[in-house]
Amino acid sequence: MLNSLSIFEQAIRALPIDRSLTRQDLFIDGFLLQQEQELSVYYSPIGEYINRSAKIVFIGITPGFEQMRLAYEEAADAFHHGATIEETSKLVKYSASFAGPMRRNLTAMLDELELHRLLNIASTATLFHTNQELLHTTSILRHPVFYRDKNYTGHQPKIDRTPLLQHYAYEHFAAELNQLPDPVILVPFGRVVESTVRTLLHQGRIKKHTVLFGFPHPSGANGHRKRQFEENKDYLMKQLNSYFNT
């Protein structure tokens, strides 16, 4: 398996493991992948592991700084304790992906849709540990993207107006999805991600999957999350039941 983590292994090993990492630790030239005007793309080990046995895929916009920080801390600690590249990749994926309140919001909504019953598991929260063989997590922009040094939200600049972001979304992301089994359930977080998935499907860049269109972004910053969920709940449940009953 091609794994870029090996390229950054020594730099990650050099990070301190006795304290929380800071922007000064991570916003360095050694981890900078690309820059274009006011956009910066940094490497993160969060995107390396691809679960080719997944049945469901959670899709965000891009890892924010907190996910990036946690991913580096997990990777540095794993290397310190003798983990291999592949073991570290998998550990980081499930530890850091959508960690914190976003994960709690996400799994609460999916449990309300009874996805856990359809998967025959106790709760969708277990997808991140006990039942992680069922889950793949990713983002349309796989590595952390920052606009003016702040988390990129998908709005400014828009993905389809920026060659750098188009490349990651329409080439890298599409290639990643096409390594997954067919079909799976795609859960795009919010309208920006949903729009990108629709474009990829329309252009034939990805295989046809069941997509939970209308699923709200689970971030606590999404003040319309609960209203959007209630408005779309019946439709979302119909999509899930259709997938599992065919």
From TrEMBL:
Residues 49-234 form the Uracil-DNA glycosylase-like domain. Transmembrane segments: none annotated. SUPFAM superfamilies: Uracil-DNA glycosylase-like. This is Uracil-DNA glycosylase-like domain-containing protein. It comes from Exiguobacterium sibiricum (strain DSM 17290 / CCUG 55495 / CIP 109462 / JCM 13490 / 255-15).
